[in-house]
Automatic annotation (TrEMBL), chains A, B, C, D:
<dbReference type="Pfam" id="PF02894">
    <property type="entry name" value="GFO_IDH_MocA_C"/>
</dbReference>
<feature type="domain" description="Gfo/Idh/MocA-like oxidoreductase C-terminal">
    <location>
        <begin position="132"/>
        <end position="328"/>
    </location>
</feature>
<dbReference type="GO" id="GO:0016491">
    <property type="term" value="F:oxidoreductase activity"/>
</dbReference>
<comment type="similarity">
    <text>Belongs to the Gfo/Idh/MocA family.</text>
</comment>
<dbReference type="InterPro" id="IPR000683">
    <property type="entry name" value="Gfo/Idh/MocA-like_OxRdtase_N"/>
</dbReference>
<protein>
    <submittedName>
        <fullName>Inositol 2-dehydrogenase</fullName>
    </submittedName>
</protein>
<dbReference type="InterPro" id="IPR004104">
    <property type="entry name" value="Gfo/Idh/MocA-like_OxRdtase_C"/>
</dbReference>
<keyword id="KW-0560">Oxidoreductase</keyword>
<feature type="domain" description="Gfo/Idh/MocA-like oxidoreductase N-terminal">
    <location>
        <begin position="2"/>
        <end position="120"/>
    </location>
</feature>
<dbReference type="Pfam" id="PF01408">
    <property type="entry name" value="GFO_IDH_MocA"/>
</dbReference>
<dbReference type="InterPro" id="IPR030827">
    <property type="entry name" value="Myo_inos_IolG"/>
</dbReference>
<dbReference type="InterPro" id="IPR036291">
    <property type="entry name" value="NAD(P)-bd_dom_sf"/>
</dbReference>
<dbReference type="GO" id="GO:0000166">
    <property type="term" value="F:nucleotide binding"/>
</dbReference>
Length: 330, 330, 330, 330
């Protein structure tokens, strides 16, 4: 039984608290948030106690591991604090708001060899993981083209957009990691951004984009993003290899379809958002993290995976602003 | 180029005239119907000339073959006339209204060895034919259970129902032939009839039924019939073998699907009726007939296949009326 | 938090123990089985302690409710014991091996008004429940025909078959309840049984069957059963109404499909058996049971639902043996 | 009955000859090709006579219309000859190898007002046409993103590649027209090209690409091309609007699917190539052309649609070579 501290009692903190509560090998001991009420509420529902001083986690010898679901600017300090207090950490994406901060993080972690895993939950989605597994088994031959469809059901409020770091660091970051999960290192990023919603444009952000990544292998990944989708959380994947193709389709609450006089086999809308759509993925991610903490081994996805996804987000932003392909890390 | 006479300018005559016109190896020369206007109209649209005296077909040495789409009571005399005048015949189902008539037919044809093929068009449907082909290749192992879903979009008018011979001879006859196509000889028929539409009940006929056939092989076929289906012409097939299953699904005008906020991947209704749904089947049936006429060989489905389907229809009717399983041919 | 005793540490006991362990409102306190080792093992994995004397459940004032997963002949005595000791009971199907025993049960329960719910888990399957919900909302109009496909992945061993009560009480019982769930009271049962596997025939049982039920409403339900299915646990439902159709399809581990040069969009096999296929249904069933125990109300499905399903099983067996339609309860 | 001359007896000439032969309102009178044998062969199979002097078409007063399926460099002279001889023309894509030639064409046609339709057959595909129709009816609201998947089953031989004008003019040209059909005028083209097959790279051409088009409306179209696809001719379309999404899926020879122990609902590969996949589209295109010739009206797609598609192909090539977004027509 691993004892957990949780940093951040917001939306993503809620997801992790629920996942912890359902895991027989984990117990939630302390929930930190600067808002006492939020911390208490989460603790009450899923276990442990709420605190507003994060030291109550770092200095608590009973806590084995933490989940970092705090605002992005706190990810780096929280990873460092976890490393220094000898606690394993599962950190939400993105690792930081800019690559410069990742450099600071690398510096601070020198000689510590901490166990840090990045929370790219989609790698653990059973369907996407199965695509990767079949791909690695050679079922479709040499991979040539990847298409990642990733549309949220609805944009977050403007207040969130303003502090989100922009669509590429906040939303596409998952798709960048997925592209790397499937294709390995990426060479060039070309972004064709869209402003469909004027309210988001007013925040100097985009709300839709097509981002094309060229992998060092010669394969190309196309990411199609939209902050809005009428039918729910549109999360699909298609990998085309020389010998075949793998598809991971959307998910719905049930398998029911309805036929009437004007249509046939109409299905339910897609699962509405990440809480339901990726519930299995969060559970599998936690299992993987617990297993690494218990049995040792290099966590995957690692801080360096987080750093690479951030580099891609920065390159995508630059490509969008400068309207040209951008080499990653330049 | 085979020269055709067509007997009957009704709904099914129309289907065959159209199929003939589109076939580069066939030409429609004479259309017979007791209604001059109907015969002329069909001839005008698809070729040839209209006649009200069927002798103009039998005595015409230019005519190689006939398609018999006349009312069912005329099938037997028309087959005999074709045989006597040395013309090949493709005859619509059912071969006759009762088995006693088939005996007369067999008697009359003795020594003539005519080329007669029964118009069980569904055997030639590319999907059903593919199911049979894969089944025969052993893809699903020993066949255990067959399900045939066959629902018309809407019931014919009461006037037609009254002279139709009843649902089993008029509608299920296709499914009986399909069951025999897939399973061979049938041993026992059990019918569970339904009266959903009081107007059809008033004609002393059923408008829906479940008919279960036990094949001599031990396999069982379930036929689900309904004279009405909200979504169109519901025509499906499922064959379960020891090692797998084959499915033939419904067809739609296009592959388009629509997703909105309350549903996803909604497809168009099914093709509305046999004219569109089985257009390819009628064309393939005609090709097969032409090829047999030209190159010789035993036509399949044969008169005996027609006779067997009729026996099954009679057994189904008896089973429905007497509420018990009925042995075929007893 | 409701405290549970579990009777029976066999396969179905295992399912319930697991479901209890995952439910935050339930705790497993005592596991009874005549085999100490089996009881201990289950208790060790999912909570509580193992006992071989069932009195340790009935006499334990801490136990609020029991789940009866004992062999079928013990269902009636265990329900009675639960009723007498004031404990709510969730009892596995079938309620008894024969209707005569149900009469004894009714007699014994007179004046006790116990809370007893029958474990027809499929009513709680999200897809089947959604079909019922949409049907009840009138989405497809008056219901005309139901098709229930229910095939197990593989037959149980002959030893189990011999004490199972036969395919209709052991396997079809779920489908009988589903037919009643959808169509209400059933009038007539017609069974067309099959013997595909000689080993099961040697046990004087069938291993496949088509069972057609006529509802008092005029609707007809066709159940297609097979103890074996190559592709997994084939569990589908189709309800045809005058205005449309509802379908509940099979489930697979993921949404992944594979296309290669000889096929396209090939999906994974179906979920293998009830443990995975109906995991959500068992969880929802338990929630419903807990909610009734806590808040009061008549449990559904009730003992009388269990009795009706058993009557259908008996009628189906009689129909199979006597090769004729059988009126329910006669 | 419209009388046709056909220019070009190659692969695409074959498609048109076959389509003409099957159309009851058209007759093929003369087939021109510089190779007498090729012209004769086509004429023998589908009607008319073969000639090697194109004047036999232009000077023939019986010919009403021509289909131009000659090599691309001849399209412009053949359109001009048709216009001058007063014959309507249906011309294959692309209208010319470079935009400069289109300017010559416009000049030559001044004052002639000829009936010229461009052969962008995919606009007439029933599924794509249905997508457009539903889109125009407002079913999905304001269009935001289009995805066009277009993969050939196998690359043409290197000899063809060398004279093809390159992937964008030869293959993507259809997708450019489809994007314009759906989104109207295009502003910017960004190409991410791929070289998967070294033999095609050696021809200084690409064999795969992602091309992103920004429409003046703000919508974005992503075209994914590949000269090779293991599963057949991968031709799909997806249009996402603010209120919903339209999908047009691939087509297969039948609706049959196969389930076995290791997979379920495996479908056949896609229709193999444009001859079968777009047979209906070619037939509908010809009907539209005949109807315009007979009844008058502006042909769509027009020469200007052809010119715009060519501009997009040139922009795509430039974008690929210069690795930057390119404004159309600059």
């Amino acid at each position: 039984m691993l004892k957990f501290g949780l940093l951040g009692a917001g939306r993503i903190g809620h997801v992790h608290a629920k996942t912890l509560a359902a895991n027989p090998d984990a117990s939630l001991e302390v929930v930190f948030d600067i808002r006492q009420e939020a911390a208490d509420e989460l603790a009450k529902e899923y276990g442990g106690r709420g605190v507003t001083d994060e030291k109550e986690i770092w200095d608590n010898p009973d806590i084995d591991a933490v989940i970092i679901g705090s605002p992005t600017p706190l990810h780096v300090p929280h990873i460092i604090a976890a490393a220094k207090s000898g606690k394993a950490a599962l950190c939400e994406k993105p690792v930081a708001m800019e690559t410069a901060k990742v450099e600071e993080l690398r510096e601070a972690l020198k000689g510590l060899d901490p166990t840090v895993m990045m929370g790219f939950n989609r790698r653990f989605d059973p369907s996407f993981a199965r695509v990767k597994e079949l791909m690695d088994k050679g079922e479709i031959g040499k991979v040539e083209q990847v298409t990642i469809i990733s549309r949220d059901p609805a944009a977050p409020p403007a207040d969130y957009i303003k502090v989100s770091g922009g669509i590429f660091k906040d939303m596409t970051i998952h798709d960048f990691d997925m592209a790397r999960f499937l294709l390995g290192d990426i060479d060039t990023v070309t972004t064709i951004p869209q402003n469909l919603d004027p309210e988001i444009a007013a925040c100097n952000d985009y709300d839709a984009a097509v981002i094309v990544l060229t992998a060092k292998s010669g394969a190309v990944a196309t990411i199609i993003n939209n902050r809005h989708c009428a039918t729910g959380y549109d999360q699909r994947l298609e990998v085309t290899g020389h010998d075949g193709q793998l598809n991971a389709d959307n998910q719905r609450p049930t398998t029911v379809s309805l036929s009437k006089d004007s249509y046939s086999l109409s299905r339910e809308p897609y699962l509405d958002f990440f809480l339901t759509r990726y519930a299995d993925a969060y559970a599998a991610e936690l299992n993987q993290f617990i297993s690494i903490v218990k049995e040792g081994g290099k966590p995957t996805p690692s801080i360096e995976d987080g750093a690479q996804a951030l580099l891609l987000a920065e390159a995508a932003e630059k490509s969008a602003r400068e309207q040209r392909p951008v080499k990653v890390g330049q």
